[in-house]
Amino acid sequence: MKLILTADVEHLGAPGDTVEVKDGYGRNYLLPRGLAIRATRGAEKQVEELRKARETRAARDLEAAKEGQKKLEELGTLTLAVRTGAGGKLFGSVSAADVADALKDATGLAVDRRNVELPSAHLKAVGKYSVAVQLHSQVSAKLNLQIQPAS
Q1: Global pTM exceeds 0.70
Q2: Residue from 77, 63, 60, 54 nearest 8 by CA
Q3: β-bridge pairing 140-149 and 123-125
Q4: According to the model, what pLDDT value does residue 131 have?
Q5: 59 and 70 housed in the same domain
Q6: What is the pLDDT of residues 85-129, one digit of tens each?
Q7: Cα–Cα dist 47/147, whole Å
């Protein structure tokens, strides 16, 4: 049975792929769950249009990530002012979410906290740190994070 996948199916393919599967697998599993549609001429044309749109979107996302990388490189050092106690220890800690919020305030670049890689899970002292930010699967940027006491 020839089918066109509408969703990512493990060990079979990605959306838009045309696959040949056994009749029972297609009829009893893929089609009822909406994971695939029967391969017809109309469906193949529609899938080709979807594939072109996905490629265009992927190219646009890559360009946006490269622009974000330039913004982060221009920024150089990101400074966070945090309440501290004696000896430069922080009240609490600085997490990836705090860094993502500070990046949004400083550059206007919305970065998901899961894409911010800190040297450790939480930063608990004043100082300079190197932080990696994953903007796209192919684009990442490094920036310096300066944590200083709030005045």
Answers
A1: no
A2: 54
A3: unpaired
A4: 93
A5: no
A6: 877 788 888 999 999 999 999 988 899 999 999 998 888 888 899
A7: 50
Q: Which residues are registered as beta bridge partners of 116?
A: 133
Q: Two tokens at 87?
A: 């000896």
Tell which residue, 79, 82, 143, 85, has the closest CA to residue 111: 143
Same domain flag for 79 and 102: yes
Residues 141 and 78 grouped into a single domain: yes
Could you tell me the residue range of the domain that residue 94 belongs to?
65-149
Domain count, the chain: 2
The residue among 48, 63, 78 that closes a domain is 63
Q: Looking at the structure, do residues 78 and 144 belong to the same domain, yes or no? A: yes
Q: What is the CATH number of the domain that holds 9?
A: 3.40.5.10
Provide the H-helix boundaries in the chain. Answer: 23-25, 41-75, 96-107
- CA dist 66 and 64 (Å) reads 5
pLDDT for 37-86, tens place per residue?
999 988 888 888 878 888 999 999 999 999 999 988 888 899 999 988 87
